[in-house]
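To fix ideas, we now present one chain and its tokenised fold:
***
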Amino acid sequence: MNGHTTPVERMGGGDLMTLASDLGDPPMQIAGILVLDGGSALNADVVAAAVAERASGIRRFRQHLVHAPAGLGNPYWADDPRFGIHRHFLHVHCPAPGDDEALLDIATTSVTRKLPRDRPLWSVTFVTGLAGGDAALVFVMHHVLTDGVGGLAALTRMADGTPAEADPAFPAPKPRAVALLADANRRRLDTLRTLPKGAGKLRRGLRELRPRGVTLAPRGSLNQPTGPRRRFAVARADLRAVRATTREHGGMLNDAVLTAATGALHTLLAARGEETGSLVVSVPVSTRSRDPGARLGNHAVAVPVELPTGGKTIDRLAAIALLTRGRFGSARGASVALVGPVFRGLARLKL
């Protein structure tokens, strides 16, 4: 090629945790739906070309995951020399009546279908035949590619961004074995140098995973392995009114979601004869910078918190807002230091 050494782009700790956690069905994939008004008149080839142009501006969308040989470090990202939109784009016609439920059924099928690991981990399904002559794009990304915040930013760039300029250096060759070994050794030395700080991180990680005042989740019908079947449903609300109410009680929009979820689970458990006054849940908290769309990857920590489920909705909202302010404000991702080595070991074993 040009004689330059291709840099090694290793997976981050959060990405490794996500990869190692992807066991069984359904796969750890996220999805977003864009409805195109009057879009059924669009030509599928034209849509595919537009998606390909936008994807070229998101580097990770043209890279695949590579497992390094034993001793050469963690998995890394490399340009896919076989990248082509035909390997990521699917056109389907929505069955009658072409309503929201039919579209959600297609989205469910798309997000629960495992993405092939021999290519960049995303897909787009162009859905025509929706009611009113509309169409839709169902974007699916593997969670190892990015978290929800990064996925939303990528989706926005795909929908509203301008076509990117062609990259003459694409595809870059894979890093050579000597480069992988040098990078792996450098990272090992960095780990040894930071061992004194690592002890403090482990202590903070234990506190994050098992904070004071949070009990273990009780056994119940919800604490059971789930099957592969999933179904999308839509809950509609006046977002402006919800945001105003949560702010009035010292909370944020996420607190309203937690309030609604705990209330719904309380109703479900009560119908099953399982009364509970609280639930221990793990809530993802972003550790991103002020520019949430600056990079892909997983930049979030799971924070366990014990939330009330009963009582009046407004009272529960205020209580949850108070709890999350205290718990989420101190979350720094130290738990990754605690469980990271375990997941790195699983990654080396390709589990």
Observations:
- Confidence is low (pLDDT under 50) at residues 341-351.
- Strands lie at 9-10, 29-36, 63-66, 76-79, 89-93, 122-128, 135-142, 278-286, 300-308.
- The chain has two domains: 9-184, 213-332.
